[in-house]
Amino acid sequence: MASSNPSWSLLPLELLENILLRIPVESLARFKSTCKEWRALLDDKIFIYKHLDLSHEGFIRVTDHNSYQIINLETLSLSSLQGPSKIGSMIHCDGLLLCSIGRRIIEPTKERKLAVWNPFLGQFKRIKPSSSYTWFDIYGFGYDNVSRDNYKILRFKREKGCEEVEIYELKSQFWRSVDYSLAYSWCAWKSQAMSMNGNMYWIAERENDNSKTYFIQSFDFSKEVFKETCCIPFINHNDWLLPGRSAQQRFGEIQVWVTNNIVTDEVVSWSMYCNVTPDFRILPLHPTYLIHHTDRVKLWFHHTDRVKLWCSEKDDQDECIYASVYEIGEGEVKKQVETERHGWYERVGVTKLSSAFVPSLVPVPKQEETSEGCSC
Amino acid sequence: MTKEMFTLKSSDGFLFVVDEAVVHQSVTLSPMVQDCAGREYPINNVTGKILNLVVEYCKNHVVVDGGDSSSSSSSGDALKKWDDEFITQMDLSTVYDLIMAANYLIIKGLFDLACQRVADEIAACKDHEEIRATLGIVSDYTAEEEAEVLKENEWAFD
Lengths: 376, 158
Description:
The structure holds two protein chains of two kinds.
Chain A: H1 13-20, H2 25-28, H3 36-43, H4 45-54, E1 58-62, E2 67-72, E3 77-82, E4 87-93, E5 96-101, E6 113-118, E7 123-126, E8 138-143, E9 151-159, E10 162-169, E11 174-178, E12 187-196, E13 199-208, E14 211-220, E15 225-231, E16 254-259, E17 270-276, E18 283-284, E19 301-303, E20 306-315, E21 320-329, E22 332-338, E23 342-343, H5 344-347, E24 354-357
Antiparallel strand pairs in A: 1-2, 1-24, 2-3, 4-5, 5-6, 6-7, 8-9, 9-10, 10-11, 12-13, 13-14, 14-15, 16-17, 18-20, 19-20, 20-21, 21-22, 21-23
Chain B: E1 5-9, E2 15-19, H1 20-23, H2 32-35, E3 40-42, H3 48-65, H4 73-88, H5 92-105, H6 108-123, H7 128-135, H8 143-151
Parallel strand pairs in B: 1-3
Antiparallel strand pairs in B: 1-2
Protein name (chain A): F-box domain-containing protein
Domain F-box (chain A): 5-52
InterPro entries (chain A): F-box-assoc_dom_typ1 (IPR006527), F-box-assoc_interact_dom (IPR017451), F-box-like_dom_sf (IPR036047), F-box_dom (IPR001810), SCF_F-box_component (IPR050796)
């Protein structure tokens, strides 16, 4: 069916754009080398963000020390790729992943590292800190609403009673301090965080008079301020969704709670979206909260009015673990796709790390010092 | 009541007689319904071969689009199947002409169908060599430039 008609080179740019916008990032990333016109289009910011806005969300998870699996929730197709090893956590924003490298439990004396990675462009860049990263740091990732491609990293340093906030701009490549004036002390559950619409949201807790309050803490990367978004009234200590709980517990029920619009400044309120009791035992992949859809904060990923649940499952008989996507809606839980199985004892801990993810062509700015733009 | 018929004339002189429902599918041609009944309407940048395909698409879409709103999903499926067969059997050179025609005549369904066909063809290519061969694109990179672009996507992980 190949045509050697040369007229395709003469296709008007807006028509070429229309065609390329329909091609998934996984393929597009390979084709910059076709000709200069294609490269110019694929590097063009307007095209990149148009394409991003049309792309469907999915998930990415760690399957092995440097292997990752991505699922496209529209086609339910699975793909794998290689990535950084020993990743401890990741935050997704616009197809970029802010990765924290180093796992405290395994190598507590080794230095923690931070990097930005676009899996589909194969671009990876270490972010050097102003002072060594510690295990008490909390990170955020987002962008300025004035300029969508101005990506920023937040570092909330808490050491010896001292709290400081710094921001790193990917474009300018330096850290600067930011005023921090919250009167209360809070901490975030490290893997219970996400970036949405350029801002950062964490599930946070603070202690007052021997009891704990749970709330959603946010950071606005445009104004560069923290804001306590809302409290979370339905979490309690016995809830299996708290981290640190044994993965052996039986989970009877899944509740999905939804907020109203949290982007505007109106008061945030929660309502229960649905409540199901699956007839199987599931182990939630981190993060279990705050997988978003447009302007709402939801407990699980929400796509076309049905909630998708990405979780890992254990087969006791075969002693293996695998991940599955379920769809929750209308009071029932339905399995949609199952990934390959791994031996349970090989993968404990690793398979829990995952994130909502949208493939994109957003570039990672190159390191200016090295001429080749490779490792830093 | 007889249906109004319109005559479309391709750039190479072929005539196609179509009814109002077909004409209305083209945003460009729609206004002619008021002016051109009974006269030939020239479409100067579309050949007879392509106009024939455009008319065939539009005729097929009238049957369903003009139907009542309770048309079943099976007729929607049947139409999709027809669309798939329609576009798949064409070679890419014809698809190119169809994209240009659907763009000029502003027939969204046909435009999307044709663009998606090309997009699928490109996505199936494993590398730039295959795309260049499939679409007849000549590379304007030097060997060094091409190597540099390819290296952009190979950063190390340490």
